[in-house]
Design a protein that fits this description.
The protein has one domain (3-169). Helix 2 runs parallel beside helix 3 (59-72), helix 3 packs parallel to helix 6 (129-169) and helix 4 runs antiparallel to helix 6 (129-169). By secondary structure, the chain is mostly helical. The N and C termini lie far apart (39 Å). The protein is built from 6 helices and no strands. The radius of gyration is 18 Å and the shape is elongated. 65% of the residues lie in helices and 0% in strands.
Length: 170
Amino acid sequence: MEYGELVRIMEEVHNKRLSGFNCAEGVLWGVTRSIGLDVPVSCITGFGGGIGGSGSVCGALCGAIAAAGIYAGRTEPEDNEAKARCDAISRAIVRGFVNEMGSQLCKEILGYIPWNRPRSPGQPRQINPKCKQAVTVALELAIREIKEAQCRDARKSNQELVAEDRSEEK
């Protein structure tokens, strides 16, 4: 993905957040759009603010992992190859996120529990700069890891086709 396209998606996600999407919804929306999918964000709504606003695992990180599952996850219990692919993508996202943000916990990233945060009635929606950073990091990591997995999958598929052609020539 080109840098300009990544910046465009990040701007769209930020605008969605200013319009009301939470961190998890914004990341899932942005990542799935970047890979050409239209997934309803309703499945991740409750993960905003660290799972139900509790400050637990960051909603942006949850949105990124959900997007990895949509791309690479299994649909049948015996599909261990898909599970392994999804786990590898997810682990890379989590490692990169914790490395960049210092934690995977919303309350540690923000310094407070989201459902306890002070709100000013009548004021426009405010997004904590650390939350905006977490969304940006999760979005970028998920897109990068999924795009790299797509490239690996394409190479593997091409190698399989070449091997198939060689076996037919014999």
